[in-house]
Amino acid sequence: MAFVGICLSLTAPVKFSGAAGILCYVGAYVFITYDDYDHFFEDVYTLIPAVVIIAVGALLFIIGLIGCCATIRESHCGLATFVIILLLVFVTEVVVVVLGYVYRAKVENEVDRSIQKVYKTYNGTNPDAASRAIDYVQRQLHCCGIHNYSDWENTDWFKETKNQSVPLSCCRETASNCNGSLANPSYLYAEGCEALVVKKLQEIMMHVIWAALAFAAIQLLGMLCACIVLCRRSRDPAYELLITGGTYA
Fold it and tell me: Which parts of the chain span the membrane according to its record (predicted)?
């Protein structure tokens, strides 16, 4: 069982540092992507799971060091602390998974409520942040309008311009002569943006959920190894003598 302790001490820093790095990356990715779509989804509480996994990622760096030191020194108190912290982190990640599913279910209603307002205030002449967000989403997701390009006919911008055209961001990448005119609908993206924005945001939330589930499994493995060392140390006098360098009388 000394071998188990050595293995745990050697792998803990690498394992938990790697897990911490990946969790922080996933959390940062959610923040960056949310910034691109925040005009279509006003509920900032959706970022709570991302905040939590970044915090967990930072904590995992510390956990790795605690597990390493406690295992090398065979400290009963240190190993017990290591197991308790891992248990708390495991519970936190379960909470992240639950929150992820809750907010994932809310995405469609939130987007439906916000996207109507954003499109109605579009200004292609002097674009503000919301207008630039619409153009960005239409180019990135290859979509036009809320449900299709005809939705633009109901916007104030379309009525004011009176040129029977939609924003150039609706033009297909392959349509080099596209000027946004509704007279050439084949040059425009046919799919609406609402469904694609919902899909994108739900994919982001699934990244959080899968990351939390994957590293919850790592926490379980870490707790199992630490518990094995703890139980062996407390029940086997020979193991205690092996660690301390003592001998039987």
Answer: 44-67, 79-103, 208-231
Helices (H) and strands (E) counted in the chain, each on its own, are 7, 0
Q: Is residue 229 assigned to a domain?
A: no
- Measured distance CA(232)–CA(236) in Å, rounded: 6
pLDDT tens-place string over residues 24-70: 788 888 777 777 777 777 666 667 777 787 887 777 777 766 666 65
Q: Give percent above pLDDT 90 in the chain.
A: 16
| CATH (domain of 125) | 1.10.1450.10
Residue 105 token pair:
């279910």
Residue 195 lies in a domain: yes
| Neighbouring C-beta atoms of residue 198, cutoff 10 Å | 20
State pTM to two decimals. Answer: 0.72
Interatomic CA distance for residues 100 and 49, integer angstroms: 6
